[in-house]
Amino acid sequence: YAGFGKHVLEVCQQFPHVEISAQVWCDEIPKSSANAHLFLKAVQLLEQAGEVSCDAQPGCHGRNLFEETVWRLRQSFFRDNKNIAQLDCQLALAAEMGLPCDRIVELLHDGAAMAALCRDTDLCQEYGVAGSPSYILNEGRQKLYGNVGYKVIAANVQEVLNQPQHQASWC
């Protein structure tokens, strides 16, 4: 992991606005990202149920609470060098943000968050999403995956938007 951490640091040096710990991928190494995704799914379920606001929040740069939770969880790992796979780390973040920790734990324990996360996995398989980022266009007939340049993405989107009916796409 240390070699990957060094690579991440080198890449991030190109972006002065990115804050990253010099110890990323060296000290606090999550065994999996699955627990973090499960925690985020629980927060998203609360948003969908109307228990957490879906409106942009003051001080969150236009993000709602779920989006801010995603952002802060990433900061916790990359900037603050915390093991975000651990529930205590996740719940500390939730408490700091004023999220209902008891409801999050309930959704984790009763299987609701897991069911929703599994549904996301099923959708990935259904649409052929192999990883991130993936862009599925044209009712699933086009897929852009991986390190794709903005001009390639723009050309594909424009082709889908402007494509005359019953003609093959050039992209």
Automatic annotation (TrEMBL):
It holds the Pfam family DSBA. GO terms for molecular function: oxidoreductase activity. Transmembrane segments: none annotated. Coiled coil: none annotated. It comes from the Bacteria. Residues 65-155 form the DSBA-like thioredoxin domain. This is Disulfide bond formation protein DsbA. It comes from Candidatus Tenderia electrophaga.
